[in-house]
Amino acid sequence: MPLTEADYEDLRAEANAEPERFNSWDPNQRFRTEYANLHPEDYPDLHPEAQRKPEDLEEDANRDENEIEQIPTISDVSSASETRYEGVRARPAARSHPSTYRYDTEMHRSETHRINGPLERHETALERINTQRTQHFGTVGSVRTQTRKKLPNFGGGKPYPPSLPEKEAYVVEFDGADDPTHAQNWPFKKKLIISAIAIWSSLAATFGSSIFSPAAVGVEREFHVGTEVGTLGTSLFVLGYAFGPVIWAPMSELYGRRLPIVIANFGFGIFAIAIATAANVQTVMISRFFDGLFGSCPLTVVAAIFADIYSNETRGLAVAAFSATVFMGPLIAPFVGGFLTMSYLGWRWTEYISSFMGFSGFILALFFLEETYPPLILVAKASKLRRLTKNWGIHAKQEEIEVDMRELVVKNVGRPLRILFTEPIVLLISVYMAFIYGILYTFLTAYALVFQGVYRMNAGVGSLPYFGLVVGELIAFCAVVATNKSYVKKLKANNNIPVPEWRLPLVMAGAPIFAAGLFWFGWTGYTDSIPWIVPTLSGLFTGFGLFSIFLQLLNYIIDAYLMFAASAIAGNTFMRSLFGAVFPLFARYMYEGIGINYGQTLVGSIAVVLIPLPFIFHFYGKRIRAKSTFAPAPDIEQDKKRDEERRIGSKEEAKTNDER
Known about the structure:
Number of strands: 2
Mean pLDDT: 79
Strand order of the largest sheet: 1-2
Number of helices: 22
Largest sheet: 2 strands, antiparallel
């Protein structure tokens, strides 16, 4: 499926925000050429026969033909980055049209001189300026066409004042690489406090997703409903994960990271209280969905917070640690819920505990979580400077944004689904990750049937074997940390251009280990003649596979789709949340119908069928990406250039030998 006008507009904005990094993503200007073929009148350099518009010719006549513009060059990929400052390029002809993909955005001389003068020696400062431009152009509502609506009268009989002479001169920026207001320059202790609050909020959300599982028995007994209705409480919560990012992702870009976290923690606590005090099962189910909707916010925003406060060298490890903590939540909660349910407190206290966690996260975020999003920090700086100087033209780029509902729907719903169902890489990887995610929530049923049913443990003790999965995930986390150094080394040797297939060796190891763990659990846990520790130890395999497959495939999507990674991940999140919601609904029927051993054989067989997937992408991924509409594949272009250089070099060497 070809790219749409909206896709090209976003690509143009990305290119204008950070031209050199965009060129490293798309070295042969594939996307520009595609659009130029559709609109030759806007690219006379590629299509000389196209008619130039009169106003463009007039502006070109008034422009100094020798004018050049220096461009800060940034390469910011994965956990390693290398900043360069090089080259000049001809300034594009200015246009009288609104800023879209078709037309160049306006960059005034004053901004060019300001960036390239005193900051030329500060590579980090250049990187941050360009990153902020990228964030601005990627925000919903930052790029809008001119409206045809008639403007109201200015009032008081006054005419409209003239526009600011050079708007960029009034845009505030950070004061160099060591600006203490930038989140990456904050003291390490402050960063740790923010990280702890963010991770606690995420842990509360994932903890709440599975603590209801042992409480479902109490709900069924009190409201006289069936097992499938009790299980629906877990499914609806996870279903909220699918729809929440549509709200929280654009909100975090428009209003910063702090406000969504504060609102979501409060909402999470409120709906947990609603579940705990529910008078009927309908209230329980509806509240569980909205509890998941609010709980999805930390899972959406916390990784962005880490990107704000940690540099490229430490960000990868920070996100991996965050992912490990998130995966532990659904595995730690069942034993807490089990002991609460079997005590005199009853099932309702599982939700009171969730509400306490939510409200504690709300209080911590309200009083101790500072805004980390650089564009919002600059908004506060601009507001302060306006008050102090009485110069009301001073502003931050973020304040130029107007919310565009159509753009919001396209970016957060339309494009992710289009990429999900038209890109083979995203679709197949999303199916695999969705299966893994579904199995994670299927374990809530399977472990209860094995350790409470077969081994006759109570609800609390019967949930302790989940710690086998936790230990397996910790082993996988250590493996990710151990392989990170070699990955960074290869990345730097490759001119900081990521090769997505480098992410796959750990997945290739984790896939068969995960499948083996599923068979191990099924064929050792269906009978009490085998000691309980044997199926418990299977969690080492399944936990390792869960974390290694999930995290590294997510990184593979990011490396493969670069400027479209956010949309690809959004589609992936939607599919895996649907699987996580549906799997628990049929799990009990499957295990009770065909037995635990054959039920695990069925899901294990599916896992075996999926084992070749990372191997296929490892050996044939480049060929598949080369045919993709959305994947830019800069590594493939670099390989082509290297092959061409070798071919030319071989010819010259042969010619030299012949002359001798």
